[in-house]
């Protein structure tokens, strides 16, 4: 049976729809009025350190005359509504050193409007450079803080030494001596406004150069859809409050802080709080001295959250020759702090009780990947998709006991289901299928794919969304043989999910019967046939509670539930009860 919804609806909700509307809405409104002089549409004043700000036609020049400086920016658009067009398209702002005993500098830019709930948007070019007697190149460190949110539009360009975009203010001293922790390179990000975000749009470009550089996005919600090229490391952090040590060797430490009242500093956003569907790349690093790493960290308060790597992304650093370089890696941490470049062994003390899931989709991963979650960790490769890993791939989850007790899994589709339909769509496909070897060839290929994934991921459950390749008894028999092969060849490693749970589900249906009979030896689960809401709710054949009860009776280890039902507070008790009584929760696997 074909359905219009995809499996991804069970796991993630798009966040860029809102951001795209803001980007699209900002430009036409601004085009109706003459913009003031300068690139940054704000009055800037040094409140720490020293320097000068000079504006021209479409340009803002910031000459920094002390090693550390703090600038307050008051936007011209102080009384409007919606997004503040802080930097219009086709304008340029340049930060550079000027006349002090040393080249490098760090600037905290505090963009604070009268209405602190309004986000600001960059649509132009921002440059940070070291200007020497002989040459000029990228350098310096620029932080941008805006309490209402930061949007980087599709025409925006950053070409800098180090860059941080955040909705958290930083503690700074009025004399401008430092805004890190006593000049140690440790920065304390103070509590952000709940639910605020830093979002990079598709088309935006951020380049960070000079060696051992870094780019960081820190907010309750982070969306990265642009192109980042960094000669160093990147940190995307979804939390309300955090402390980050940007170590020159690339081995960062990222700690989620408790708030002053003792409550969690985990993200106040819910749902998918960190999304990456763009490109993060850069030159190779040097193991031990200049490790190049991509850190993605999301820690919850008391609501469930997801860190999602969407399909089509490109993550990792340049490949030298035929092998990934040791020291380059991608560290994905959902619910854990980062300690010296790795996810911590125990969940973040600054987080709350919420479950944190990690969801990966196919993409190009050119560096070693390690993923860790306090909830479910999942890689899904669907029909026609390819996930390329140039180096080691490690995925680990933790038993939450609620809805997703299986720790981590790889989901392989395409063997018998295309768009949750039969492998063959119509009579015209049968001659092509037979010419390619028919069911024997399909069965052989399916078994080879199972072996390939089992070898590549020896400690991670391999889950097959089961569907017969063709209608009728012959298709069902072929699927049964493939399932028997997987269970027999890879016991306790190979499993299946049946994607059609409803209130009338019984073990007499062969896939449900397999789940019930294999439950004690193999990872098995169910997916709801549909949400209990909307025009197709009739496919559930009863209430959500009744369908959950059938899943428990079938001894499923986990049940995938549509987001509409998870968000409805009226279902919370039923979902919690099902989570406690599922087979996997009782077994603790």
Portion of residues within helices? 10-25%
Model regions low in confidence, pLDDT < 50 over at least 5 residues = 1-33, 399-407, 414-421, 585-589
Rounded Rg: 26 Å
In total, how many beta strands?
A: 40
Distance between the termini: 31 Å
Largest sheet: 21 strands, mixed
Named CATH architecture of the largest domain: 3 Solenoid
Shape: elongated
CATH class of the largest domain: Mainly Beta
Strand content: 35-45%
Please indicate the count of domains. 2
Description:
This protein has 589 residues and is α/β, with parallel strands linked by helices. The chain folds into two domains: 282 residues, Pectate Lyase C-like, CATH 2.160.20; 181 residues, TIM Barrel, CATH 3.20.20. Helix content is 16%, strand content 35%. It contains nine helices and 40 strands. The strands form four sheets. It has a 21-stranded mixed sheet that branches. A 14-stranded parallel sheet has the order 5-8-12-16-18-22-25-30-33-36-37-38-39-40, with helices on both faces. Strand 9 and strand 10 form a beta hairpin. The chain is elongated, with a radius of gyration of 26 Å. The protein starts with 15 loop residues before the first helix and ends with a helix.
């Amino acid at each position: 049976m074909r359905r219009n919804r995809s499996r991804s609806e069970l796991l993630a909700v798009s966040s860029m729809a809102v951001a795209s509307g803001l980007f699209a809405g900002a430009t036409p409104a601004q085009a109706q009025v003459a913009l003031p002089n300068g690139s940054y549409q704000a009055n800037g004043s040094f409140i720490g350190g020293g320097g000068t700000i000079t504006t021209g036609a479409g340009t803002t020049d910031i000459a920094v005359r002390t090693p550390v400086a703090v600038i307050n920016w008051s936007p011209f658009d102080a009384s409007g509504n919606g997004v503040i067009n802080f930097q219009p398209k086709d304008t340029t702002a340049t930060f550079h050193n000027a006349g002090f005993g040393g080249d490098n500098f760090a600037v905290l830019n505090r963009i604070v409007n009268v209405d602190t709930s309004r986000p600001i948007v960059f649509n132009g070019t921002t440059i940070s450079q070291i200007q020497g007697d002989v040459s000029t190149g990228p350098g310096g460190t620029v932080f941008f803080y805006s309490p209402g949110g930061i949007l980087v539009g599709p025409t925006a360009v950053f070409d800098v030494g180090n860059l941080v975009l955040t909705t958290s203010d930083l503690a700074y001293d009025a004399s401008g001596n430092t805004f890190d922790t006593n000049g140690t390179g440790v920065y304390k990000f103070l509590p952000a406004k709940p639910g605020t975000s830093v979002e990079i749009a598709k088309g935006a470009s951020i380049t960070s150069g000079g060696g051992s550089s870094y780019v960081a996005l820190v907010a309750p919600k982070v969306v990265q859809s642009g192109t980042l090229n960094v000669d160093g490391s990147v940190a995307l952090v979804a939390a309300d409050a955090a402390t980050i040590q940007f170590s020159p060797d690339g081995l960062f430490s990222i700690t989620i802080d408790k708030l002053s009242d003792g409550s969690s500093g985990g993200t106040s956003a819910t749902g998918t709080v960190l999304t990456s569907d763009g490109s993060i790349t850069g030159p190779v690093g040097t193991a031990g001295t200049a490790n190049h790493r991509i850190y993605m960290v999301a820690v919850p308060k008391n609501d469930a959250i997801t860190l999602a790597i969407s399909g089509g992304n490109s993550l990792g650093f340049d490949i030298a020759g035929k092998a990934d370089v040791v020291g380059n890696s991608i560290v994905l941490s959902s619910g854990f702090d980062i300690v010296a470049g790795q996810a911590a062994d125990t969940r973040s003390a600054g987080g709350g009780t919420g479950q944190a899931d990690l969801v990966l989709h196919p993409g190009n991963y050119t560096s070693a990947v390690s993923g860790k979650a306090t909830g479910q960790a999942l890689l899904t490769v669907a029909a026609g998709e390819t996930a390329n890993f140039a180096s080691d791939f490690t995925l680990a989850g933790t038993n939450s006991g609620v809805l997703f007790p299986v720790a981590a899994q790889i989901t392989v589709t395409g063997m018998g289901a295309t768009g949750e339909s039969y492998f063959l769509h119509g009579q015209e496909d049968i001659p092509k299928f037979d010419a390619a070897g028919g069911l024997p060839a399909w069965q052989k290929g399916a078994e080879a794919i199972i072996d390939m994934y089992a070898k590549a991921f020896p400690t991670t459950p391999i889950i097959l969304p089961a569907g017969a390749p063709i209608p009728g008894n012959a298709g069902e028999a072929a699927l049964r043989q493939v399932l028997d092969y997987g269970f027999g060849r890879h016991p306790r490693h190979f499993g299946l999910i049946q994607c059609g749970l409803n209130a009338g589900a019984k073990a007499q249906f062969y896939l449900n019967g397999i789940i019930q009979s294999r439950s004690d030896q193999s990872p098995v689960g169910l997916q709801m046939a549909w949400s209990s809401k909307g025009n197709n709710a009739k496919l559930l054949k009863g209430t959500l509670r009744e369908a959950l009860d059938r899943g428990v009776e079938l001894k499923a280890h986990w049940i995938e539930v549509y987001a509409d039902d998870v968000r409805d507070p009226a279902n919370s008790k039923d979902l919690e009860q099902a989570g406690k009584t599922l087979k996997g929760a009782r077994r603790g696997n």
